Amino acid sequence: MPASKILMITGDFTEDYETMVPFQTLLACGYTVDAVCPGKKAGESVATAIHDFEGNQTYSEKRGHNFALNATFDSVRAEDYDALVIPGGRAPEYLRLNAHVINTVRHFFDAGKPVAAICHGAQLLAAAGVLKGRTCSAYPACRPEVELAGGVYADIAITDAVSDGNLVTAPAWPAHPSWLRQFMAVLDAASMPETNAA
């Protein structure tokens, strides 16, 4: 059973699938996942938004579920976690204004820990200044932010994901199978004991 402890940073109007599917999948695979939101406590909820592709120039947005948080943002310490998950949706656009969130994201990159971000999650990565020279996928409307932050935008199919070292990213929820498979491979590699070459 995996021992990794994963932090998920989310917020109101996070994308429904991009929050609930990875949360439940990682739990089902034996990982510990703490879902937190600044300003909210364990047991409180965030409102989700359903983004869908219905033939318009951009996605449509509808009210989704209430997603229950299982940890309190003010109580968590990034040092206690092995990996980070950043869902997309509307939340990253305002979460990136929170200095504690930005510092938390930076911790995972400074420590070389696995990070999975999907869709608009790249907005948090760009704001944290962790994309310079890194390949990153995101919802296509976030491409300018990825590139302005010094990242290399991965223009891939909506069902694909891309890994760059400890970072696994994807354009949107249709990529869940690839995104989660790649993220779990990075988690497994990070948890393997190092062998001495002596």
Report on the structure:
- The protein is an alpha/beta fold.
- Helix content is 30%, strand content 24%.
- The protein has six helices and eleven strands.
- The chain has a six-stranded mixed sheet, with helices on both faces.
- The chain is globular.
- The mean pLDDT is 95.
- Residues 5-184 form the DJ-1/PfpI domain.
Characterize the biggest β-sheet. Answer: 6 strands, mixed
Number of helices: 6
Low-confidence stretches: none
Radius of gyration: 16 Å
SSE class: alpha/beta
Distance between the termini: 30 Å
Shape: globular
Helix content: 25-40%
Count of DSSP strands: 11
Mean pLDDT: 95
β-strand amount: 15-25%
Give the neighbour order of strands across the main sheet.
3-1-6-7-11-10
H and E string: EEHEEEEHHEHEHEEEH
Protein name: DJ-1/PfpI family protein
Pfam families: DJ-1_PfpI (PF01965)
Family: Belongs to the peptidase C56 family.
Domain DJ-1/PfpI: 5-184
Task: Provide a compact summary of the structure.
The protein is an alpha/beta fold and 198 residues long. The chain is built from 6 helices and 11 strands.
Features:
198 residues; alpha/beta; six-stranded mixed sheet; 30% helix; C56_PfpI-like; DJ-1/PfpI family protein; DJ-1/PfpI; Class_I_gatase-like
